[in-house]
Write a structure and sequence with these properties.
Layout: H1 2-17, H2 22-54, H3 60-72, H4 76-84, E1 85-86, E2 91-92, H5 95-103, H6 109-123
Antiparallel strand pairs: 1-2
Helix pairs in contact: 2-3, 2-4, 3-4, 3-6, 5-6
Amino acid sequence: MRLWVCVLLLSVVLCASADRPRIVQGLIRAGQFVRDAAGGTRDMYRAYKDMREANYKGADKYFHARGNYDAARRGPGGAWAARVIRWPFLLPHSDARETWQSGVSGRGAEDTRADQEANAWGRSGGDPNRYRPKGLPSKY
């Protein structure tokens, strides 16, 4: 029994000090990617929730930029989440939605382009405060 315990402990020590096989490294990277993507999704949701709560005219670009900025800072998974998730929250990007948003909703194509610019600005690491309107409470 003691011999097997010693062999087990020696194996653990040797495995801990040895280089990890590629498959294990790949699994670890995949896990980090998924964790970053989940965190980025939470960042995007928090920005969306704050935008709805603030209900402040002209602040939508700020929240777009902030959500994308926070998500992209998490790493590759967060940056992926920021590219994939669109406003309104968790709707995939589609031409049909963009057409509806620019035509039917009354927002206009120019506003949609400005939203996309704010998204890109935040994803690229630009300061979201560029879009922060005067008078928006400091809570946001």
